[in-house]
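Form 7-S
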Amino acid sequence: MTTVPATIADTATAHGSRAALQAHESLASLKAQYPWPTQRPSESPILWSLDYGGRRLITDAIPSRGVNVLLEIGSFLGGSARQWLAASREVVVVCVDPWPDLVDPGAGIVAHRIGRAYRDQLRAPEGVYRSFLSSMWDVRHRIVHVRGMALDVLPELHTLGLRPDMVYIDADKKGHEIPVCDELFPDAVIAGDDWNWSDGYSFPIREPASRSARKRGRRLKSVGTTWLIDDGPWTIRERLLQLQSSPRSLTQATHSLIQRLCGTTSSGRRR
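Output:
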């Protein structure tokens, strides 16, 4: 029998609202549908997260907007999910990722010292998935992990009652999930990564993100590689974060464009 961790139950009872109770019940359904293994995988934990200066836009928004349930599309090793957990004691993260085998780690992974150190582990059969489980084992009571392609599993999650307060998208870099989330989760704050990622011709994530903001009648904010569709004006703190990240953001966007033009961009995953 699958039980709901105390932390998830406490999130509902602490707020004492009908919405919180519904969130608790939906999380219970998700935990039952997508249980953790009974034993921790033998793979070494890999604590790895890359931040090009924009994640504070999200970690600030989580407590200020009372985010209790965050749906993350594209989790890799869980580095960003750990940042969301650290932002608030109340938040539970639903991680959606196919966690495919990484036969070719790609230049972006082997160029990093952590990627090089764990290359063999990540290339092993089920290496990425088992590394995620091992890396997140100590916080599994606050993580629901859903293995599958987002476009396939999002309708099922909605049917199971998932109503996230925020959706963070870091998947195929082209934003195919954005209109689906607009349809399924119209009340959720939509955010994501890859604002400065280029295919050599454009920055693909920007058009679907902008279209979503227009549809919702909200403001689109970007800091570094991170973007957020918000119903409030820019705050002073957000503008300062944007200014601080501008040089790094420009460098990252230029580097991404050059890589694509030269055909040397990584086919690997990062987080």
